[in-house]
Amino acid sequence: MALDVLRAADDSRAALYDATSRGLRAAAKELPTVWLYDERGSRLYHEITQLPEYYLPVREGEILRARVGAIAERTKAQTLVELGAGDAKNTRFLLDALEGAGTLECFVPFDVSEAMLRGSAQAIGDAYPQISVRALVGDFERDLGGIPPDGRRLIAFLGSTIGNLDPARRRRFLATLATRLGQEEALVVGLDLVKDAARLEAAYNDSRGVTEAFVRNALANANRELDATFDQRRFAYEARWEPEHGWVNIGLRARQAHSVSLGRLALTVAFEEGEPLRVEISSKFQREQFAAEVARAQLRLESWWTDAGGDFAVALVTRDEHHVE
Ligand code: SAH
Ligand code: AVI
Predict the structure, then answer these.
(1) Residue 325 above 60 pLDDT?
(2) Which of 69, 175, 247, 260 could form an SS bridge with 281, CB 3.0 to 4.6 Å?
């Protein structure tokens, strides 16, 4: 197993600190989502995926199980790249089908969390000894250029992680991907779908409080790394479906007016009573809307598969060869 780091650690930290500083000085305060995914955060996310309320991975697995044969047949991929690979659990459906079809040579898991990536790349390497595994540590919003153009590639972006980008960032991300995708290559995306508010909110307000611990961990990470003074007791956890935006807004709300200092950023941030601090959004999709986003990036929504209940979708996206400028 090979592991390459696409960007010097100093450079990625500098960019993260800069984004953190901007986010906390904005009128609507937010912390970059990357703070969620240290080793503990990745473990907590893994626990979330096992929660009964968090239906996303099971539904995605159902769809993939039924459709990977068609995906393998259509794409004949030699290299499977996975953005935000995490533990790459549902990826195994794709790996099995592509290996079964006899085309797969290489798996490239790509993730910002090196610890997570090492573990999953090793596990995949052990389970699929016939293919090479080349792990990449990088940021999928900045480092897509570092993905080697080797072989005919299928790029997977599973788990509805695309929903953690807001529409403007999704637009940039899809436009960048479009410039990198070869004529015979494809993108397979997992998307959580709009559904009733109660189920959406339950998925982010689980009864065991694992999601709350996952989100609060972002504050703990900022405290440790930025010499910050976020006091967990002064913030309440909140995750609410906002239909006007089409996303679940996930974060913390100041219980009282207070200030937080971030020594490493030379910054003091004043919170008013009741002021929100967004940590993450989780957008939920509808077919027409996603098709329009894809078309705008000069890509084509070739297939759209959902589970029987219509909870989740897997989309196959290719280059739009008929697009006229
Ligand atoms: N695909 C897996 C994991 C989803 S969790 C699944 O479906 O279960 C989201 C993953 O994306 C985490 O492993 C996190 O480390 C990674 N991630 C988040 N932001 C990222 C970024 N900007 N660049 C690369 N990876 C990122
Ligand atoms: C990784 N991502 C798709 C998850 C989601 O559902 O938006 C992250 C998550 N946040 C809280 N629970 C799960």
Answers:
(1) no
(2) 247
